[in-house]
Automatic annotation (TrEMBL):
DUF6538 domain mapped to chain residues: 6-61
The keyword rRNA-binding appears for this protein: no
SUPFAM superfamilies referenced in this protein's UniProt entry, alphabetically: DNA breaking-rejoining enzymes (SSF56349)
Domain of life: Bacteria
Single GO MF annotation: DNA binding
GO biological process: DNA integration; DNA recombination
UniProt entry keywords in alphabetical sequence: DNA recombination
Protein name: Phage integrase family protein
Organism: Neorhizobium alkalisoli
Length: 436
C-alpha cells in the first residue's frame, strides 16, 4: 500500500511534510513544514501523523490550499485526513463490502476529530459532489505538490525554464479539449489530443519529439493529481496512449556532422568575424562533446591547463549549483587539438557568456553561424558527432559514456571512479581526425 498523503520516508525514517499555503508563507517563514515522526514503522508513522494532520488542517482551514469553493475544500480536507473522498451517491451504488471499505477511512478520521467543522462534516459524510478540475487548475496543484522538484534549481530563471514545458503542455491541452474535467478524462480524450498533435507535426508546426514530450508532461501532471486526490481512478488514461511514431515522427535526434561538414564549420569559424569566445567555445565543444552551459559556466578552478594532461572539469562551482542531473554528468574531459589551443586563450573561463541566459545566447549565435556551413545542424550536434566518432573508433561504450557524461548500466563512472584521464585522452586521440 502507498504511504498516506503527507507522510514520506527518508533513509528508513518516516517524516510528516505539508506545503504551506502561499498566503501563510510570510507567517511561517518557509514553504514546507517538516517534522520527524520518530519511527521506522509505517503503522506507527500513520498514528503519529494523525494529530499533525489535524493540527495543520485546522491552522490552514481559513486559507484553503486552492480556493474557497466548497467542493474543493472538502477534497482538500479528505486529503489532509488521509482518506479518499467519495460522494454519498457513489457509496450508495457500491456493494456492502465496497461501502464499508469506502466509509471506514472517513469514520476513522472522524474519531480523531470529535468537534468537526461544518465543512469537515461534509467531507466525512460525502455530502458534496467532487469538484471538477481543469488541466490548468491541475497544473497549479501539481506545482504545489511537486514544489521541491522545481526548488532544487537555485537559479529562479532556471526554475522558470523547467516549469515552462508543463505550462505549454497544459495550454495546448486546453486549446484542444477546453475545460474538460480531468477526473472524467477518458482514453478517447487523450487520443483526440494526440491526433491534434500529429496534425501539427504533419503541418511542420511541431517537431515529433516536442509533441511526444507534451504528452509526457501531461501524464506527469495527471498521474500526480490522481495519486494524491483520486487514487481510485488510477491508472491514468495517458498510460494507455501509444507513442507518436511512424510518418508522424519518431523521437528525433539532433543529427551529427559528417566529416566534410565539421571541417567546413571549423574553417568557417576560424575565418569568421564572431567574437573570440564564440569561436573558442564552438571548437572546444567540437573536440569534447561538452554542452553550451557546461562550457559557458566553467570557473577558473575547473580549468587545468598546467596538468600533465590538460583538462576541464564539469561540475558544480561558484557559477552554478548543479550540472544536468549531476551524477554521471560530473566528469573530467582531456583537451585535445583545437580544444586545448582555444582553452589556453581563456584560462579564467568565458566572461561573455557566464550569466543566466549565457548558454542560450551562445547557442543562438552559434546556430546562426553553423547553418551557413551545415544545414539542419546545431551546437548540440557537436556532442552527437563526438559520440559517433568514439563509437566508430572502437571505443567501449562505458569509456564513451565516461567522456560524454552518460550513465552506464551496472557501473558508476563518476566521483573519481572509473576511467582515468589517460584512458580518455587515448580514446579521444584515436577518435579525432588529424588536424582536429
Amino acid at each position: 500500500m502507498p504511504l498516506p498523503t503527507y507522510i514520506i520516508e527518508r533513509k528508513q525514517i518516516y517524516y510528516f511534510r505539508i506545503a504551506v499555503p502561499k498566503s501563510q508563507i510570510p507567517k511561517f517563514g518557509k514553504r514546507q513544514i517538516w517534522q520527524s515522526l520518530r519511527t521506522t514503522d509505517k503503522k506507527t508513522a500513520v498514528k503519529n501523523a494523525a494529530p499533525l494532520i489535524s493540527k495543520y488542517a485546522a491552522i490552514f482551514a481559513d486559507q484553503p490550499a486552492f480556493d474557497q469553493d466548497l467542493a474543493k475544500q472538502v477534497l482538500a480536507i479528505s486529503h489532509a485526513y488521509g482518506f479518499t473522498y467519495r460522494q454519498d451517491s457513489e457509496i450508495a451504488k457500491a456493494t456492502n463490502e465496497e461501502a464499508v471499505l469506502q466509509i471506514g477511512p472517513a469514520l476513522r478520521a472522524l474519531e480523531k476529530n470529535l468537534q468537526p467543522s461544518e465543512v469537515e462534516v461534509d467531507a466525512f459524510g460525502g455530502a458534496v459532489k467532487p469538484a471538477a478540475l481543469t488541466m490548468m487548475d491541475a497544473l497549479q496543484r501539481y506545482k504545489l505538490y511537486c514544489e521541491d522538484k522545481f526548488m532544487e534549481y537555485s537559479d529562479e530563471r532556471e526554475r522558470d525554464k523547467r516549469w515552462r514545458p508543463f505550462q505549454q503542455a497544459a495550454k495546448a491541452f486546453t486549446e484542444v479539449l477546453k475545460d474538460v474535467d480531468i477526473f472524467s478524462l477518458k482514453p478517447i480524450d487523450c487520443i483526440k489530443f494526440r491526433t491534434a498533435l500529429i496534425a501539427q507535426v504533419k503541418e511542420g508546426k511541431l517537431k515529433p519529439e516536442t509533441a511526444q514530450k507534451k504528452i509526457m508532461w501531461l501524464r506527469l501532471i495527471h498521474t500526480k493529481i490522481l495519486e494524491i486526490e483520486r487514487p481510485e481512478l488510477l491508472p491514468s488514461p495517458w498510460d494507455r496512449l501509444s507513442r507518436i511514431n511512424g510518418n508522424a515522427g519518431e523521437k528525433g535526434k539532433r543529427p551529427s556532422f559528417s566529416e566534410e561538414e565539421i571541417t567546413k564549420v571549423r574553417t568557417m569559424l576560424l575565418d569568421s568575424d564572431a567574437s573570440k569566445q564564440v569561436i573558442a567555445l564552438n571548437l572546444i565543444s567540437m573536440n569534447t562533446g561538452a554542452t553550451c552551459k557546461e562550457l559557458t559556466h566553467l570557473h577558473k578552478d575547473d580549468i587545468f591547463l598546467d596538468a600533465p594532461i590538460p583538462y576541464i572539469s564539469i561540475r558544480p562551482n561558484a557559477n552554478r549549483s548543479r550540472v544536468k542531473k549531476n551524477g554521471s554528468r560530473i566528469r573530467d574531459i582531456p583537451l585535445v587539438g583545437h580544444a586545448l589551443t582555444e582553452m589556453k586563450k581563456f584560462p579564467n573561463g568565458f566572461s561573455e557568456f557566464c550569466k543566466n541566459n549565457g548558454s542560450e545566447e551562445l547557442s543562438r549565435i552559434s546556430n546562426e553561424l553553423i547553418k551557413g556551413a551545415a544545414k539542419d545542424r546545431t551546437f548540440y550536434s557537436y556532442r552527437h558527432t563526438i559520440a559517433d566518432r568514439l563509437r566508430r573508433s572502437g571505443c567501449q561504450d562505458t569509456l564513451k559514456n565516461s567522456i560524454m557524461g552518460h550513465a552506464s548500466k551496472g557501473m558508476e563512472m563518476h566521483y573519481g571512479e572509473g576511467y582515468t584521464l589517460e584512458n580518455k585522452l587515448e580514446a579521444l586521440k584515436k577518435a579525432l581526425p588529424e588536424g582536429s
